[in-house]
Amino acid sequence: MSEFFDVYGAGDLPDGTMKKIFLDGREVLLARAGDRYFAADNHCPHMGGDLSSGTLHATIVTCPLHHSQFDLADGHVVRWTDWTGIKLSSAKLLKAPRPLKIHEVKLEKERIYIKLRE
Fold first, then answer.
1. 12 — phi, psi (to 5°)?
2. What spatial distance separates the first Cα and last Cα of the chain, rounded to whole Å?
3. Block means of pLDDT (10 residues each) for the chain, length 118 residues?
């Protein structure tokens, strides 16, 4: 996929908010932090939680299921889960931490465009 999709008006997404959108058959998380816009897969790579139902602090999105955290700027794992001790070790063995898939975003004429990545 190499095309950008016109998805939303920039002024329609308030600062510090997230929204689930459907784009080309996929659930995508659209978020705004300050004057920057971000797009990522909406399902948490840990246990598939709906990230749009989580929280957003600056560019860090927290999954509502097990509180996994990801930086929307580049998708890196901030925290895989809020579990500790043996439960955390087991969780990492069963499902190794992996980044959140992010998508390219551009802003043109007050419209948000997203280019999906495979």
1. -85, -10
2. 7
3. 87 96 96 97 93 98 94 95 75 79 96 95
